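Annex B. Sample input.
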Amino acid sequence: MVSVILKAFFAVLLIVALGHPSEASAPPHTHYTAVIIDSAHAVPLQLARVSLYRSTTFISGKISSILGRAEFTDVDEGAYELHVSIVGYRSLSRTISITSQHTIDTIRMQNIEQEEITVAEAAMATIPSIDVESGAQTLDAANYHASPTHRIINLVQENLLGAVRAPTGEVHVKGMHGEYTYYVDGIPVPLGVFGGLNEVVDDKVVDLATLTSGTIDAQYGGQTAAIIELQNRVPSGNAHLTASMYGGSYLGRDNAAPDSVGISTSKLKPINQNGQSLSLSDHIGDLGVFLSGSRQETDRRIDEPINLIDHDHGFDYFTYGKLDYLFGENDYATVNFNWSKTNTQIPFDPIEEGIKDDRQLTSNSYQSFSYYHTFSREADKSSNLFIGIFRREGNLLFTPGSIDAHEFYFLGDPNGYILAEDRSFNTYGFRAKLTKQYSHELQLIAGIDFSTVSGNEHFTAYDTMGVIGHDLSNTYSGSNFGAFIQSNIHPLEWTSIDLGIRYDQQVAPNKPLEKQFEPRIKWNVHLAEASNAYLYYGKQMVANNVEGLRMIASATDSATAPTLAERDDYYEVGVIHSFDFGLRLKGDCFQRISLPGVDDQTIGSSAIKTPVNLAKVTTTGVELAVSFSSPSTFWSGYMNTSLIHAYSSGPITGGFLAIDNAGAASDLDHDQRLSIVTSIKYQPERWYANLTAIYGSGLTNGNEKYEFGTGVFDFNQGAHTTPSWIVNLSGGYTFRLAGGTEIEPSLYINNLLDHNHLLKGAFFSGAAWEDPRNIVFKLEVRV
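Annex B, continued. Sample output.
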């Protein structure tokens, strides 16, 4: 596959060499900045969407900073259409001319609240979902209308190329097992207690998300299957208050009266869900404030292991706050803080596990401080400093039911037990980077990141008499350190090279120091102003979370091998093009060789999981992303299609568990060959309709006695669940009342066709079934 990737890229280079204009005839490049301000108060506007079009062809899109600046680099001189939009302001379009003498414009936006009469307008200008230069995908919250029951993982799964829906609140990206990282205002959000189901980030407070997978440059370490950069906006203008509530129900199969074997003839019953949220914002001088809180309740909190809905009631509570402070034209700071809590029952399979009454309580909190300083904005000589610090705290309390079967066994003890768990952790860290533009041809970024984690794990085993048979308590600590240098070298106008090197090391309990130097290079060939091809190679060390390495496993087996970091060699070739009628396209093929790879495995007869090593994991994929949007129409849409095969071979070790073997080839439990997400939106000024369809060719069904083929097109369907389409439909309308108040009722139908199927079989971890059709009504008031 690697040789195919190289041949494909050099074929593209040959086409470029034959058809690309000479350097002498190529238009000169320059930098351009649009400064976005409020027309009435002359204050800068953050997170405005600023797009450059050449006629109707999208060229580039940027987001304005807290200083109101949207900065474009390597722009061809000439005439452009500039489109600017920001929530609460009238969208603006104008023709501009960019030259070496004209590199900055001030754009004054008119607040809708200042208008006596609102008139119809063209479609809101947005940043298209595929960036022509980098290949990253962008999600604009103004056009994202997810069900209020969805979480941040749904945002990632539905909008990131190569993402696969998975059970238990996970998303698998490019054949990897959920190993991606969120960044909020430039600071990473470490994962919480392994097995926790609630998130630190709520998609309902996200204003803009940039999603990058595969081609990760050297400034990012850790979980790098994808980088999810989130920006949360303090709304502009005067005080705002938004309140919403939702309620819904669906018919699920109930197992309310089990018989002697723990299961009865099922019957349909209504499964309820409801929630409320409140947010408010204001500006006090140069200080912007945003606060929000939400509550959710549902009878379907976790993926059911069988086609029955029972013992799955759960509550979620979430609070979030953000502060922005503008010190001056060169300095600003942001603060993020949150607290969340989930209290839920754990569903069970009465035939395989017996009747259970397990419950889980998880809590998370996160605080961060980000500081930005600009040393210089001079064209081709700019320099910026970023410094961020953060704290992350979490706890997981798992309480088994007294009626549970006593099936957890300790090494050397023939008695069975039920196992309670109490884990907590604290993470402190910082990240700093300096960006320096030395010339048009050279940019350097250098930085470091460091985090330290400490915590306690406490497991209590009860025998059939309710007496404590084993009591295991262990404190743990560890750290992660990274340093990087990343450069952008632009020797000729038609090509550039992103070249960097990163050093990572991890200190974790009960295993040796792990470290690695990781070179990463991306060669870009600019086929035209709206086209780009690239070839990427990167070495990556994906360390396991220190708080996820569970020593309880060593009490069940005599094995002593810990789980080591995944080490990858990753190759990718791709082409990106923007057509002149609003269509953007990205195609790529990739291969990842992991020596070793990582998956997670359930420990004994418990709900506890721990990461384990797979001797070799080979992942090969072909992907295609298509998106459409244009300021001239209210229609927009996208389609993400990926064909990915991830399989392992050789021994399964680590986790302090007994050695197993994957044989010559075995599909991973998160392997799904074909994944498709397609979405169509129609969004005039006051209302919207959205149809999203998700297809999966099926995760594992647990059949290990299968002769696995290893090609991309070897679907191995006998070892995978039945393919499925899930269709979601939503719509809403905004009523504008006197005084600027808005009321928006909306309706969401999830799994419209009520496709009932097994999402994943039991393999490494438990089985899970698809949600049945459910209908949710939401009412939101904005003041």
